[in-house]
Amino acid sequence: MDEFMDAAIAEARQGLAEGGIPIGSVLVHEGRIIGRGHNRRVQSGSVVLHGEMDALENAGRQPARVYRECTLYTTLSPCPMCSGAILLYGIPRVVIGENRTFKGDEDHLRAKGVDVTVIDSEDCVALMRQFIENFPELWNEDIGE
After folding, report:
1. 3-class secondary structure, 49
2. Is residue 99 within 8 Å of 76, Cβ to Cβ?
3. Alpha-carbon gap, residue 131 to 129, rounded angstroms
4. What is the mean pLDDT of residues 49-66?
5. 36-69 as b/e: b if 16+ CB within 10 A
6. DSSP class of residue 60?
7. What is the mean pLDDT of residues 11-39?
8. Is 141 tagged catalytic?
9. What is the pLDDT of residue 145?
10. Which residue of the set 11, 30, 52, 122 is catalytic?
11. What is the pTM of this model?
């Protein structure tokens, strides 16, 4: 595993420790994390603070050229909302921890020219599977089932 996915996993674990959904993300520019976040829907009563959105928010406003040079690391395949933000800001590369428990809009990202890599991390899979088993109502609320 690499340091950036490790940082995203640490964010996911922090979210779980806060009583939230364990999905974490980091935004990396030129080998440095410029934004990190985790799903805060439960903690903040938010409808939009998924891990990727939180990482983007915490990166603050950036010039368009910065986003075009970034890689977004996320522990779980990005949903349509987060994929839309990736496309909106022109982030060219996304590294996904796992897509076994949820496959988001990866095909759409690829069709739009985003380099999408799924590393199939056992840590990410185990984190989500345990969460879904323990908190199915939160999981179903988050993915709209």
Report:
1. coil
2. yes
3. 5
4. 97
5. bbbbbbbeeeeeebbbbbbbbebbeebeeebbeb
6. -
7. 97
8. no
9. 52
10. 52
11. 0.96
